[in-house]
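User: Some background: our group keeps a shared notebook of sequences we're curious about, and every so often someone picks one and asks for a predicted structure to add to the entry. Today it's my turn. The entry only has the sequence so far, pasted here. Could you supply the structure so I can complete it?
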Amino acid sequence: MRLAKLADYGLVIAATLSRAETARAAEDRLTGGSSEKLTELVKLEWVAEQTSLTVATTRKIMKLLVDGGIVVSERGMRGGYRLAAPPDQISLADVLSAVEGEVALTDCCSDSRQCEVISNCNVQRNWSVINGTVNSLFSAISLKDMSGQLTREDVVARVQNDQAAPGRIAMVQLAR
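Assistant: Of course. Here's the predicted structure to add to the notebook entry:
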């Protein structure tokens, strides 16, 4: 099982915007600037270049991220893109939800519950628990976390300590 390419690319683009913001904040701290403001806008072409994606693919994914509230866009000569919130407040689940919709491992875990055998299924309840656990994992990891080198222990600790994740964008409802 693997993430769809658009979901993967959405995470790559969001992480690239996160790194741009982190670099800007570090520069502001060194120069005495305002580290509280979100990063300056970046151009679509810059994002495409940084991610090695085509401009067309970057544009398509950026629209999904904007529509999903992950990214803010501004038009005009000085326009561009930036994250809608600080990287530590945007989870992987938020990005995946914006790009692909709900994370559902099986049909019976989706909101529409389109499975043909759900009425006679003896594993549906277990799939719901597993799906909820995967969603919890994606909700516990932020874009800021993704900018560093995570270990298995890091991920486990975040899931254990960050079940409610206060302050994060709450776009994804966990299946329970």
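Suggested note for the entry: Residues 91 and 111 are 20 Å apart (CA to CA). DSSP finds seven helices and two strands in the chain.
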